[in-house]
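pasting for the record
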Amino acid sequence: MAEYFGLFVKYIPLLLLGLKNTIIIAIGGVALGTLLGIVLCLMSLSKGAVLRRAANVYITIIRGIPLMILALFLYFGIIKNSMPVLAAAILILGLNCSAFIAEIFRGGIQAVDPGQMEAARSLGMSYFQAMRKIILPQAFKIMIPSLMNQFIAALKDTSILSAISVTELTMSAKTIIARNYKAFEIYSFALIIYVVLITALTFVSKRIEQKLSYDRR
């Protein structure tokens, strides 16, 4: 037990450095995915057939590709050395998240009473003004729990990006194991960190969901 604790004290700084990058990638990826997701959502709800079909094709393709395959294809096939690996990881995760977030936004928008759009248009607002000022603020409250769950999923998905050698938590653990061959101990440290972080985020997500449910009463 003393040896296990000693290893934890020795290697926790390296693991926390990887955790920092994990959080940066997750936040950056979800932020980028949210921006792209809003655009894709509006395209998928557009009356223009070309925009609608383009968004639906993109969403279908991205959702159908495993993240590891997407990461390997984009990084080694297209990105290569054109940007830092951390930025590439954020871009790849953002593209992956965008398809899922677009569907979250679409569901949230469609959950808003259609009369809200009709009322906004009757006041002289354009479609995009009504979306920005009336529909999206209401839809966002509906979507917050799903967006929190998507962030938790993205945080866990960062471990897959170790495939492109970005130094996140899982890659940090692999690097340490390559030095001391203590796979069980090091992976158990990483497991504990993931569990603590995900449990905390899940608790926050549930509290937000409870507050929103109370506010709607």
